Amino acid sequence: MIAHLNGKLIEKNPTNIIVECNGVGYFVNISLNTFSALGSNEAVKIYTKMIVREDAHLLYGFATTDERSMFEHLISVSGIGPSTGMIMLSSLTPEEVANAIQTEDVRTIQSIKGIGAKTAQRVIIDLKDKVVKMNFSSENIFTQNNTNRFDALTALISLGFDKKLAEKAIDKVSQMDDSVEKIIKEALKIL
Fold it and tell me: First CA to last CA across the chain, in angstroms?
């Protein structure tokens, strides 16, 4: 299978690109996150996942290996095909999908077009253990050393606060050795 393409960017659209490698142009489906990450460089390296169906051989491209890994996990869930997986990765970053799964945030996953309540719950159940093992290259507050911050964020989300606002509040108030209760109390003052 084709693991990545390293070549010249010939055409770039929000949902697909054409990459020329040694005179062959490859049509690659991409997410909006990958579209944003590509920029306007002519030389590109895109990580790919090839899906073979009866009627087509399709390439899906990703700016990072983390995004490709998340895509592979998503399409392993019953009811989620490659198109829905790309919609999910266009709506949320791989980190946001992982955070929603870890915090069992059905509402965030269900907010994605084409995902209902049952599918959102299935995603959480099927991928919760797999997503914990993923290490994202960007800084993430859900690292092993920050379990108090993770617990505080989970509590704030379960109280009905927006995840992004809660993360910002926790970032402002928390120290590495703060207790969960202290982080929540200080964050509630901001929220």
Answer: 49
Check residue 136 and give its pLDDT.
59
Q: What is the pLDDT of residue 56?
A: 92
- Which of 23, 39, 63 corresponds to the end of one domain? 63
Which residue matches tokens 């202290």? 182
| Cα distance between residue 170 and residue 181, in whole Å | 12
pLDDT of residue 156: 81
**Strand pairing partners for 21?**
24
C-alpha closest to that of 151 among 141, 161, 140: 141
Residue 139 is predicted with a pLDDT of: 37
- Tally of CB atoms within 10 A around 156: 22
Could you give the CA distance from residue 74 to residue 82 in angstroms, rounded to a whole number? 8
**Residue at which a domain ends, from 63, 80, 110:** 63
Which residues, given as ranges, of the chain have pLDDT below 70? Answer: 135-147, 175-177
Phi, psi (deg, nearest 5) at residue 15:
-110, -10
**What is the token pair recorded at 44?**
């590109």
Longest dimension (CA), the chain: 61
User: Residue 9 is part of which domain span?
Assistant: 4-63
Query: Closest Cα partner for 27 from 42, 46, 54, 53?
Result: 46
